[in-house]
Amino acid sequence: MGVSNSMAAGQRVLPRYDSKDQYRYPAFMPSSADRTVKSFDPAEFVIPTAKQEDWRYAPLERIGEFFEPFRPSGETQVRLSFLDGSGAVSAGSDASVSFERASRSDPLPGSVGKPADRAAALEWDCVQQIYALDVHRDLDQPLLLNVRGTGEDLDALHVAVRFDPGVHATLVIDHRGLARLSEGFEISVGENAVANVISIQEWDAGAKHLGSQRIRVDRSGRLNHSVVTLSGGVVRLRMDPDFGGPDGYLNMLGVYFVDPGEYVEHRTMVVHNHPSCTSRVVYKGALNGKDARSAWVGNALILPQASQTDSYELNRNLVLMPGAVAESEPQLEIENGNIVGAGHASSVGRFDDGQLFYMRSRGIPESAARKLVVHGFFSELVEEIGIPAVSEHLMATIDRRLAMEED
């Protein structure tokens, strides 16, 4: 029997992926990195439908305006200050921070990855409000970026954030008001930098917010990234982190509370593309009433070059009242056998009536008992956010919502 030239030369001939028999060689199946389109050009993306994996949970009938070209209103208000209220921060006012209007041609905007869906590409294509925030030195006080919606006119906003190498700093992003906002954030954490970013969504009823956050953590950098979604008619946030070098650390926390008629979706799409990097993703949500809907989709992709990866993702959902629907979809794709560990878990559970009965039998009123259960569910994540003012506000807001439901 003859020997092929490649075999004769001592080369290994790898089997090829067969779309008609995709499980024959599972290791050669295309990963999400092979399937996902990423582009600044909206024309590269089809208009979303419920048949598409990325959009199958979303209420497309409520957000169709975000998928066609539009002229932004420019009415969204943006202001940077310190969290303690010590004053505004602007270009030249503080040597530690620069914050200024920018354009697509500037170096910082557009430097962290490419849009991964049509809404994000259209935001980049249409946006007029572009800001560059650069943190040059360690900060004793957290920065506060206020984003205020002022009406229902469709708007777009893009903010590029960079933490310079070695910097230790915290940024809180606070969304409030009434808005229909398509928003893009780019977050770059420099070599050996330690950054803490907290994004809060506390919109008025009926607000719509489609957000994309592209994230890169450079060599030996560390990012603690927290998302707190407390209200809004439709809130859909997609986070796309990767690494710019080895030994990066990414910790992603999420807390969401969904009232009747609201839809909240979070997508965390972590790509391990360098060796010896670690990622942790933990999201928890509570749904409080009929027609409250949430979706969490988490994907950890470990590429062939990402040896010694350590990755884990977890999602828990607590359904407080009948009629709420929570979707939870963890995904793990491993293309490298030399890893430290990788795992995922998720659950959707209803409020424990037995636990409630036990506390009431000990003399605890029902309203207080419900609050205790919810506090216990969220407590670990809330403490890990690490900003007391944010943690206290979060729990006070949830307590207020629970009290309103009882009334």
Can you give me a brief rundown of this structure?
The protein is of the alpha/beta class.
Describe the structure.
The chain has one domain (27-352). The protein is built from seven helices and 16 strands. It has helices at residues 5-8, 32-35, 60-63, 118-126, 353-361, 366-385, 388-406, and strands spanning 77-82, 97-101, 129-135, 143-163, 168-189, 194-203, 208-217, 222-231, 234-243, 249-258, 263-272, 278-287, 293-302, 310-319, 325-334, 341-350. Helix 5 (353-361) crosses helix 6 (366-385). The chain is globular and about 70 Å long. The relative contact order is 0.09. The mean pLDDT is 88.
Number of strands: 16
Structural class label: alpha/beta
Strand content: 35-45%
Radius of gyration: 22 Å
Helix content: 10-25%
Distance between the termini: 84 Å
Instruction: State the helix count.
Output: 7
Shape: globular
**What is the residue-averaged pLDDT?**
88
Number of domains: 1
Q: How would a textbook summarize the main sheet?
A: 16 strands, mixed
SSE run: HHHEEHEEEEEEEEEEEEEEHHH
Taking pLDDT < 50 over at least 5 consecutive residues as the criterion, the unreliable ranges are none
What order do the helices and strands come in, and which of them pair?
Layout: H1 5-8, H2 32-35, H3 60-63, E1 77-82, E2 97-101, H4 118-126, E3 129-135, E4 143-163, E5 168-189, E6 194-203, E7 208-217, E8 222-231, E9 234-243, E10 249-258, E11 263-272, E12 278-287, E13 293-302, E14 310-319, E15 325-334, E16 341-350, H5 353-361, H6 366-385, H7 388-406
Helix pairs in contact: 5-6, 6-7
